[in-house]
Structure formats: structure tokens, C-alpha cells
Amino acid sequence: MSIRSMMVPLSSNTERQSAALEAAVNLAKVLQAHLDVLYLKFRPEQVMRSFASYNLHVSEVGESFLNIQRQIEDQCTLTRATFTSLCQRYDVPTTDDQEKWSYPSATWMETSKDPHDAVAQQGRLVDLIVAGKPAGDSDEDVLEDALRNTGRPVIMAPKTNARFIGRRVAIAWNGSLEAARAVSAAIPFLIKAEQVTILTAQSDKTTASAAENARAYLAHHGIAAKTAVFNKNLSPPVGKAILERCRELETDLLVMGAYTHSRVHELLLGGVTRHMMAHADRPVLMMH
Q1: Cis (ω within 30 of 0) for the bond into 115?
Q2: Could you tell me which residues are beta bridge partners of residue 132?
């Protein structure tokens, strides 16, 4: 399946979210796709709730409200200026007409809806979502909403060279349902890649043959992949081992399933997904 529509949700103009925006604009150009930039605006009253425990005078509350409102608008204006500049740099036309797209193209969208609902509703109607690497709880909520609530592949984009994504690809393959979905979603990237390597951590649940089975599947799509199997019990934690091999292979995209364990397991014991959110130093295409 070709990728024709994309989305990048943003809630600030931080360095990490700017990196995600640049990666998304670049991918829209490379993939000849339309990009929706969804800016999640905080409502002043949401922020003011944090002042509820303070004994503020009425005049102080009003002044604080206006200051917050100005800061929200200033942040939105700054982020939109970054969007416009990036579209010009990558030669991606911008349009406000939802019915007259060219390919590539990009549209700026703002919403004050609940971020969870906004990301889920808009994200279900695109082929690919690009999100920034989490820098805090709110960023992680946006990424997690995209992964858990849209049914779409998500590229987590840490600060990197946005011009090169998908030339050298690694696949973290364990035979799980989530990994299978991720590989299928990544086919448009894998077909164009110069190098594809399947990384498999051998364990009681995952045998070495799993990597060969995945290689044979990709061959049906004309993708010549190599395999690399390592012993899960003899290596560092799986997430760390995968990233080490990605560095050795000089990959610019990692493909993997997300949240293959339950939510409780991930929260209490961690997992590969959360390790990547914290430590990935290259783009990661994930799917739940």
C-alpha cells in the first residue's frame, strides 16, 4: 500500500517536536504524500486549573488567564512559522483547501479539543503518523494515543538528519502480531531501502527460524533482507541490544511492534517500547 496521507500532532515548539515536524515534512516530499499538521492548543482554563489550590485575588486570576492565553497564542504562532519555513525549505506546497490537494502538500490545522480525542479521530484517517520522541508525560501521552488508539503506523522521530529516513532499515522481529503489523505497514519503506536487516532475539518463545521466515515473506515483495540472530539470555536487555546493532549497521529507521506486552506489564516492568521511547537515537516505525 502506498502512503498518501500523513499526520504529525504537535503541542509545542520544543526541539524534539520541531524535529518531528521536519521529519514529517521531509517524508511528505519523499513519499509524495499530503501532510496534516495538527496543533493541539491548550485552553487557558485547562492551565488555570493548576492554580485552583492557590488563594489568588480575582484580579490576579484575570491577569494570569490573559497571560496564559497570550503565551498559548504566541507558541502557536511560532510553531506555525516553523511549519511554513520547513515547507519552503523542502519545497512542499501548503494549502488550506481540504478538497484540493497536490502531492506533496501540507495543511496546518489547530484544535482545542481534548488531545486524546483529537489525535485518535484525526489519526485514524491517515496512512502514517509522525510523532516526536517523548520529553515528558504530555509528549508520551500524544505518542501513546497515536499508537494505541489509531490503528496506524507511527514513526517516532528523535532529533536526527531528517533528509535520510529509510535507506538502511532494521526490523526487530519476534513473530508477534504487533511486529507483523509494523512490517506490513513498512513495506513502502522496505521496497525502496538500500539495506534491510532482520534482528531477532532468540529465546524460548522465539526461535532462530523466525528471522528466516520473515526474510522469506519479504522476498515475496522483492525485498532482499539479511538476518541477524542474537541470544536474548546472553545479550544486554533486548531494547539495548537492538539499538546497539542498529548503530553497528548505521540504520536510519527501525521497524518494530509496539506494546506487545500488556499495559500493566509495560508500566511496572518496562519493555522494548518504553526503552525505545527513552533511548532511541534514530527514527522508529512502530505499530500496535
Answers
A1: no
A2: 157
Closest CA to 36 of 112, 121, 116: 121
Chain centre distance of CA 62: 38
Q: Three cell numbers at 251?
A: 540504520
Q: What is the largest CA-CA distance in the chain?
A: 70
Rounded Cα distance between 84 and 88, Å, is 6
Higher pLDDT, 208 or 150: 150
107-120 exposure pattern, b = at least 16 Cβ within 10 A, e = fewer: bbeebeeebeebbb
**All cell numbers assigned to 141:** 501521552
pLDDT digit string (tens) for 150-202?
999 999 998 776 678 999 999 999 999 999 999 999 999 999 999 999 999 88
Of residues 235 and 264, which shows the higher confidence score? 235
Quick one: cell of 23? 521529519
State the pTM of this model.
0.89
Residue with cell 495543511: 107
Q: How far is CA 100 from the centre of its chain?
A: 26
On whether the CB atoms of residues 150 and 131 are closer than 8 A, the answer is no
From CA 205, how far away is CA 195, in angstroms rounded?
27
Phi-psi region of 142 (alpha: psi -120 to 50; beta: other; left: phi over 0): alpha
> Higher pLDDT residue, 33 or 96?
33
Calpha distance 132→150 (Å, rounded): 16
How big is the chain by its Cα radius of gyration, in Å? 20
pLDDT tens across 97-144, in order?
A: 767 778 999 999 999 998 899 999 999 999 999 999 887 655 568 898
